[in-house]
Amino acid sequence: MPEGLIVRALSSFYYVKSGEKIWECKARGLFKKHQKTPLVGDRVVFEIINDQQGYIIEILPRKNELIRPPISNVDQVVLVFSVVEPAFNSALLDRFLVHVEKAGIPSLICLTKMDLIEDSTSIDEKMDVYQKMGYKVVKTSSKNKDVEDLGKELEGKISVFAGQSGVGKSSLLNALVPSLQLETAGISQKLGRGRHTTRVVQMIELPSNGLVADTPGFSQLDFQGIDSTTLGKYFIDIDQFSDRCRFRGCLHVKEPGCAVKEAVEHGEISAERYSHYLEFLEEVKEKEERKWR
């Protein structure tokens, strides 16, 4: 039976590309029985019914998987954040990074709407923190078609764009592939955040022999599968100091001999990043307490 790649998912339909053709497929009932849902990015075995339709009968092993956005087998996650409209949100960036680190997938930080600011000093200082940790950062302007550096990072890879609504993910893709003409929308003046324009997860082919998954925007991420003892592992700056703490299992809050707190005091760990860690830790602890009530 043929194999293919799920390039689009809409409701209970999965669009499987095999060769140069795409079949509209449904999943056999066995997936519901085993609580495994096909994802965009899955390599699958499918049965052909006619020239346009088929049934997915097997999901091949995944090398990685993200829950939000729901996608598998990606080479990198491009975290798209605007510098303004909506304003850059470092806490949300750190929240995304925790989830991507947990999934074990490389991250690329992409800043959009650089044309809307005259002085980039403030954002450069923020990005310097992430670059020192080893994260790549690219700056873009869809309006000015300044997407060359981003395009190079996407060459020959399967990437997924993730980020808050309204940061310009669809506009970036339109700049990279002008023939796409994806729907875009501005910022809601009443709510101060972006309107959703991407409604389905879909793979888009790039001229550079790469694939990009455009995903629906969202602003909340729950810490599924992460507990208070493992959260620090996904802050790579905190994790590199944690093995120097006096006590095993140190949560880096009030414990004596905490190497992480000392690193924050000495400027080796960003105080802002550490504050986000503490904020997330409280959120995780509250979930743990509710679980046991």
Quickly name the level 1 CATH class of the largest domain: Alpha Beta
CATH topology of the largest domain: Rossmann fold
What's the shape?
Answer: globular
User: Would you count the extended β strands for me?
Assistant: 15
Question: Distance N terminus to C terminus?
Answer: 50 Å
Strand order of the largest sheet: 1-2-3-5-4
The CATH architecture name of the largest domain reads 3-Layer(aba) Sandwich
Supply the number of helical segments: 8
Number of domains: 3
Largest sheet: 5 strands, mixed, barrel
Helix content: 25-40%
Radius of gyration over C-alpha positions, nearest whole angstrom = 21 Å
Query: What is the mean pLDDT?
Result: 88
Unreliable runs: 185-198
User: Order of SSEs, N→C?
Assistant: EEEHEEEEEHEHEHEHEEEEHHH
Q: What name goes with the CATH superfamily of the largest domain?
A: P-loop containing nucleotide triphosphate hydrolases
- Structural class of the helix and strand makeup? alpha/beta
Q: How much β-strand is present in the residues?
A: 15-25%
